[in-house]
């Protein structure tokens, strides 16, 4: 990552991630969330409103910004300029949902 925070990197500026790229990234997240909602809706026999899909997409995008910032800070703390797998593992340990999922999966195997 560059010397900017994860949020600055995802939010972008004209030098690294222009407005067009930022728009396309948000649109890709929105599209993917919409596809997932459609798939879950078919499987569960329910529908998601456009507002719900938009809220989920925005929440997902913002969470990715937070992840990017945290990963960059972990790398900086380790006196590195590159994020590595140890940073990702540390990030996963900070997520209660991921810890529960890992525990659940380890109990099944």
From TrEMBL:
Keyword Lipoprotein included in the entry's annotation: no
GO biological process: DNA repair; replication fork processing; resolution of meiotic recombination intermediates
Alphabetical keyword list: DNA damage, DNA repair, DNA-binding
InterPro entries: CENP-S/Mhf1, Histone-fold
GO MF annotation list: chromatin binding; DNA binding; protein heterodimerization activity
GO cellular component, one term: FANCM-MHF complex
Family matches, as CDD domains: HFD_CENP-S
Family, as annotated: Belongs to the TAF9 family. CENP-S/MHF1 subfamily.
UniProt name for this protein: Centromere protein S
The species this protein was found in: Chiloscyllium punctatum (Brownbanded bambooshark)
Lineage of producing organism: Eukaryota, Metazoa, Chordata, Craniata, Vertebrata
